[in-house]
Structures are given as C-alpha cells and as structure tokens.
Amino acid sequence: MKIRTTKTALIAVASVAALALSACGGGGGSPQGGQGIAKNITIEAVNDQTGPVAYAGVGASKGAQLAVDQVNGQHYLGDGVTLTLDQVDTAGEIDRAVSEMTKTMADDKVSAILGPTMAQQAAAVAPMVGQRKVPTVFTQSGADGVVVNDYTFRATAPMESYYDIAAKWLGANGLKDVSVIYNATYPTFANLGKTVFPKEAEANGIKIGQSIEVQSTTQDFTGQAQRIAQAAPRAVVMMLIASQSVTFMKQLRQAGYTGQIVGTSVQGSGNVASAGAAAEGLVYPVDFSAAMEGETSKQFTEAFVAKYGQKPDAYAAEGFDAIWWIARAIKASNDSSRMGIQRGLVKVASEGFPGAMGELTFDGNDMRVTGAIVKWSGGKESIVR
Length: 385
Description:
With 385 residues, the chain is α/β, with parallel strands linked by helices. Helix content is 38%, strand content 20%. The chain has helices at 54-73, 94-106, 119-132, 159-162, 164-172, 187-203, 222-231, 242-254, 295-308, 314-333, 338-351; strands at 40-47, 82-89, 110-115, 136-138, 152-154, 177-183, 207-214, 235-239, 260-262, 282-286, 353-355, 358-363, 366-368, 372-377, 380-383. Strands 2-1-3-4-5 form a 5-stranded parallel β-sheet, with helices on both faces. Strands 7-6-8-9 form a 4-stranded parallel β-sheet, sandwiched between helices. Strands 10-14-15 form a 3-stranded antiparallel β-sheet. β11 (353-355) and β12 form a beta hairpin. α10 packs across α11. The longest helix is centred in the first third of the chain and has 20 residues, at 54-73. Mean pLDDT is 90; it is low at 1-29.
C-alpha cells in the first residue's frame, strides 16, 4: 500500500490552451500542475474489499486493474506514461469510507478516484468530492445522492434505468401475478421495490399481490417464504443482496413454491451458485454478462479470463469501463490534473464510447446501458433477451 501525504493539492488556475485528442506524454512536474499529461498518474480505488458486499468492490478493482494494464501496454496516454491503481478497503463501513476518501483527496499524487460501491458510502462522500474537486467515478452506488456535482461520475447505469426489461419479460411471458420481496435497507432496492417496479408492473399489466419488506439483518426468510408459497403467484420478484438471495430461494423452494423467480444483477455472475437447484431457472436483468456476444464485451471477457483465469462479473465490467472512461478523459483533455480529468470525463460522456458493457451512453455524468435478461441454468448464464 502506498504512503499517504497530507500536502494540499495545487490546482492550476491557467487552463490548457487547447484540447487534443491524441496523447502527448508531457508534464514532468506535479501531477496536479495542469501542464499536460504527467509521466506518472495515480488513480486510487476506495471501495469494499471485505465485508458483506465485498464482491462488488473486489470485482470492480479487478476490472479496473485489467484496464490499467491495457492502457499502459498500449501506450495509450503516450510513451513513458504510467497509470497506477492503488487500493484502499472501506470494509462496508460508512465512517471508514469517509475517512479513507478524506485522506485520498488530501494526497496530491492522486489524480482521480474509483469511488465506493455501496450506495450509503457513496452518498456520504459525494458532497466532499465536489468540495475538494477530485474527479471520482463510482461503480454500483445506484441510489440518488451520488451524482450530485461536477466532480461526481457513475460508471454503472442505475438499476432503475434498465429494470423495466424485467417487467417487460414477465408481461411477455404471461407471468402477470407476482409477489415482491425487497431489502428496504438498501436505497437501490427500496426504490425498486416501492416505486420503480410497481410503476413498470402496471405498465405491463402485472398485478402485485404481495410486497414484502425485509432488512439487511434479515437472515431467516421462513415466514416470508411460506406466505409467498401459500399465495402461489406466477412469479416472485426478489430484490435482495447476494447472501440473502441464496437463503431465500432455498427456503422458498422448501416451502413448496415451484414458480418463476426474478432477481437483480446482484445475483449475476454465479453469486447464486451456492443455492444449487433452488436457483435453477432464475432470471434477472443485468448491465453485463460474460454471455454477451457484442464485440467489445467478448474482447473484455477474453482478456479478463486470460489475466485471472475466470469469467468476469458485472462489477469487473463496470470497473474496467470506469478506468477506460478516465483514460479517455485524460487523452481528450490532454491534461492529467484533477481539473483536466474532470473536463475530459464530461467531454467523453457527451460522446459515449464502446465498453465492456456494450455501447455506453450518458445522462449528464451518469452512465446508461441497454441491459439484457439472463437465465441461470445448469450452473451458467445465457441471454434470453
């Protein structure tokens, strides 16, 4: 782990004379000097590497490191320019995320940040990012209150922006009588369960018979599973974190329910494998799957397998696209300072670019994707829409 400094970053007041679309490899002074592209550029990942949602932070950091390797290997930012990724663990704690982000933003060697994946952490640090003017690209963190100023960006399409494809799939397959269970502690799931899915359900002729709230501390779903099984809906829409979903599906099947279960991208990339037969046939919308066949998605998957010996998950794809967004930003502005990266991120977002998740577009500083419906069967994902 790198040694931190507390020296305040100096942001140059003189803007670069012209934007260049090709890398120049200049800038031998301070990385925040605003004098072109520095020889050494540091990005710091501040996200969960341990704790209940570590899978999101670990995946994002793996994808990010692959992107860093590619940027350096291709000399994308110019000969002699080295991009470095440092890592800090927020361990699922909001206070720790605030503390680590504060330290990172005070380190003038850090030009940009890959931010926390947990929505509560991200929302807590987002105002600080704007105050300190450090470009921060969040992955996951799909709730409101994250993309709130000129220096906050998100390389994950909010789940609500593509979850409509789940309701359309249910409607198209005649599964119009459903029960919903969601984790009300997590803002993303609370919004989906209370507002987004009911609206989409109505638009697709779907009737919600039960809507059940649970908390992050809920580990036993016996009562909820029995209620749902007795109601016997055609489908169950499940908005739970990975560990909860495994337990819930097992208990739901044990209660005698044999209908369709629909999840979220959190269940993707094998997170439901430990549920065994209870997860067979599970369907869920995702922003990325290793089963995607678009050219840039396939290239990413092949490169990830070559580096790590395993298929990538959605979190890895998001981290990968976040770093390439930053790299493109540096090249677009010809400036690796914090101010230069911020300007470049805005410019790249205005044009979009092809990434691991396909053709990426943006609503302001917020990423958008088409999304896909996948089915978990036989221990692997396949695209069904």
